[in-house]
Amino acid sequence: MILVDNVFGYLNGVMPELEGKIIPANLDQTSPVLPYCTFKVSNEQTYGTPEVTYEDLANFEETSTAQKKAKVEVNFYAEPISSSNDYDARYYANLLVARFTMSKGMNASGEFMLFLAGYKDYSPLDEYLEDKLESRSIVEVDFFFTNSHTEEAEKVESFVHTGTIINNLGVPI
User: Does the pLDDT value for residue 138 go beyond 80?
Assistant: First the structure.
């Protein structure tokens, strides 16, 4: 969930025109008034072996830091261009791509950093919803990010051994 929260914060930061109208996809809620966008995070992958450090040996705190990559699909919905509307969904998709390519990342919490790895633009995809034409554009964005996770390891209070201990020569000790 941390990734969804941070992508949500990132999109709100780079798309102030859609403030309050950026929502995670697949939520059971009514769509906001046009224009708005939805996003979906998928295909999260870890690269390399996570680095594990032990910060507090007295409390057995273990921190795991991993380099990851995820795909984010952003869907924009807007009214088609007309005499009363200058900005369709393609405009918002282009705006997002331009801001992504200029952005170096966003430090949303002291441990989480997003970096743009690439994008694919699938625009425009205008479609009829019921009896009304709606402008729609999709941008798929690949992010690299570092994720740190700290947890308290379990302590072994006691150890009871039953059986025979055998040394490396196969001889019981």
Answer: yes
Task: Read off the amino acid at residue 23.
Answer: I
Is residue 172 included in any domain, yes or no?
Answer: no
Does residue 80 lie within any of the structural domains? yes
DSSP result, 120-171? EEE----EEETTEEEEEEEEEEEEEEEEEEEEEPPP-------S--B-TTS-
Residue 102 in any domain: the answer is: yes
- pTM score, two decimals? 0.68
Q: How many CB atoms lie within 10 A of CB 46?
A: 11
Residue range 30-58, pLDDT digits in tens = 888 889 999 998 877 877 677 777 666 66
In-domain check, residue 170: no
CATH number where 114 lies? 3.30.2000
What residues have CB less than 8 Å from 53, skipping those under 6 apart?
62, 63, 65
What's the domain range around 50? 2-152
